[in-house]
Amino acid sequence: MITRTLSYLILTLFLANSAAAQDDWTYLFKDTDLNEFYFDFLEETEPEDVFEITADGTLVIKGEDQPEGYIQTLDEYEDYEIKFEYRWPDEPGKSGIQIHSTSDTAHSIWPESIEIQLEPDHSGDFWVLNNTIDVEEEQMPDKAAERNRRIRLTPKPEPREFGKPKKDLEKEPDEWNAMHIVTKGDTIKVYLNDKLVNEGKNASATSGFITIQAEESNIEIRNFRLRELE
Known about the structure:
Elements lengths: L1 H22 L2 E2 L10 E4 L5 H4 E3 L5 E4 L6 E4 L4 E2 L1 E8 L8 E6 L3 E3 L2 E2 L1 E5 L8 E4 L19 E2 L26 E8 L2 E6 L2 E6 L6 E8 L3 E11 L2
């Protein structure tokens, strides 16, 4: 009886700790609506024409044949991690997650930020808009000066080919890819399907809003969750 009781207590504590760990995550698009976010577009349009939040918390971006724009959190964040899955239900296109965003515009409609790219063949790349971030030399493409683009790392044990990221890290565009972004202090790490694909240090911005782009393409984002780090 004592053994059974002890086993039961251990199991109960394990389940409680697991539940507490899950509770640390905030699902940004679960049990909410578009009124809880800020929007901006290149041309006048209604947010619901471009963005939809489904009953299960999936963010559906209907960017095709619509002006470029974005959805942005009302709160600013510092030292946190993000996890989500995304796919292209139609033709793959462009989109990105912009972290450390401000309310100032840097280029076209896009705010000052550090963007993590979702475009196929470039998932995890950094684009810096009125910001700076340091990366290793092998992450730099041939035309690094143009728009400050940074190419992702090729995870070990695979060799790091200069300017040639491994496409086989990505699933097919219509399949769900998992992205994990960790920002702590001035360091940003990006994981794609559980592989480290990019890392930058000495970022000039370390906090701000979270922005998701609509770039004239259809994309679906599910289980978008955020957890603040201590």
